[in-house]
UniProtKB/TrEMBL annotation:
Coiled coil found in the keyword field: no
Membrane disposition: Single-pass membrane protein
Alphabetical list of InterPro entries matching this protein: AB_hydrolase_fold, DUF829_TMEM53
Places the protein is found: Nucleus outer membrane
Main location: nucleus
Family affiliation: Belongs to the TMEM53 family.
Record-given protein name: Uncharacterized protein
Keywords carried by this UniProt record: Membrane, Nucleus, Transmembrane, Transmembrane helix
Domain of life (superkingdom): Eukaryota
GO CC field: nuclear outer membrane
Amino acid sequence: MLHSKAVNSLENFKRLNGSVYIHDPTTTTSSENHPDLILIAGWMNASPRHVSKYTAGYQKLYPSARILAITTTSLDAAFSTHGANLKRIAPVLDILYTLRPNSKLLLHFFSDGGSFTSTLIARKYQERMGRPLPAKVVILDSSPGRATYEAGVRAFSVALPKNIVLKVIGILLLRLFYGFYKCRVDLNTKSLFDIDAPRLYIYSVADDMISWQFVEEHCNEAKKLGYTVNREKFMDSSHCGHLMTDEKRYWAAVLRLWSAV
């Protein structure tokens, strides 16, 4: 079994800004079958210690890979300006813009927080480079959820109180709601995410935050569009808790996905 415990959070990572961390491997031995760069976008309010369980696993699987990890807070998604979020992801984009054409990128993100950040990165990359994010594979852990913007507007419009402070909070929550709705659409947009990049959906029937039906709906939509999809469906793991439930199964699914490209 691959044990992915980290001792002190992202201790062997360099911090590039308040949200982005990078690990440059010490080994000089690379493998043709390993990713060159792994980009991990954590779930909303996941701490570096949470993310380190995954970075440690990847360091053991692919010791020659560089690893970028980016965190997302609820403030980033609901309150920060677009400009502030662009500044947050800037170190990631700077690295992606300079990747060699044949570089092998693995993208792994979690829940709606990770999809929010990943789709923002993909949109800005497409705007600058004129092509989809160059990920060879995409791993969606506990993502995406599903929301209907029109229904949300109606619900929030009725529920918004007259108190101006609470009303502003309600509007910001509505902004968050719409942001996640847009992420779901963006993830199946071919100009943002390459149709040739296989994807792996890891999800659970017991997830009380992201319904497994919502994930499977998105998976089916992706398949109809021409994406190659793989599913790892757990029965009793919690939201973003699949690794903790069965670590061996989790990493085996990741290895199968990567070995197919």
